[in-house]
Amino acid sequence: MNFSKEFTSAILIIGNEILSGRTVDKNTSFIAKWLGELGISVEEARVVPDKEDVIISSLNELRKKYQYVFTTGGIGPTHDDITSESVAKAFGRKYDYNKEAYTILEKYYAKSDFNEGRKKMARMPEGAVLIYNENGSAPAFFVDNVFVLPGIPSYVESMIPQLKKILVIGKKIISISCDAKVRESSIALDLENIQKRYSDIDIGSYPYSNKDGFGTVLVMRGIDEDKIIKCKKEIEVMIKKFNQ
User: Fold this and answer.
1) Among positive and negative, which fits the CA dihedral 92, 97, 100, 105?
2) Which domains does the chain have, with CATH numbers?
3) How many angstroms from the chain centroid is the CA of residue 188?
4) Which residues neighbour 79 within 8 Å (Cβ) at sequence distance 6 or greater?
5) How far apart are the C-alpha atoms of 222 and 202, rounded to whole Å?
6) 4-36 confidence digits (pLDDT tens)
């Protein structure tokens, strides 16, 4: 799909627990769907370990390639939460306490131990803008085009709507699907020809098998609804040919 780079993004999932399979990543799906509603296409999603050099190199590559980058994970109180400091180094900025974040945490932990681990969550790159956490204590933040979010899905879901006022949004990305009850290999050439005629629509082909046999789900994504509907009609004509 030929989206303008103005409306592109990437998601960088940070955490050894995701790579080990211990934790299932739910954030990518939520963020991608939310951005799609705003007309911002997620062009790449990458999972990296809690290693500073990998985070920095990945972040610098993605933030130059896409308009927006969303990171999840690694901004908690423990030793392996190194995302905030890595972001600071990627931008060449000082890493220190954010006064507003420190005040929020100090107030939140007023009746308990405001220890060094909890204070750490207030350390951010210089000039970071806060993303407030209504369901928890520590805020997230963004620097330029990089939005640094927590790994906890419920926090991400409550915090990300704040960004709607900040992001430059495009036309909503529309997705329509149809079920071709034929093998993917049977329709491959015809589908390729249709894709060539509709170069600004992304046609995805997803084979499946079940107790009733084989089939292929075809998904059309784009920003022009009329053109997507026209494309779907051509695909349905093609499918009918193979089902006769």
Assistant:
1) positive
2) 5-165 (3.40.980.10), 174-243 (3.30.70.600)
3) 29
4) none
5) 6
6) 577 999 999 999 999 999 999 999 999 999 999
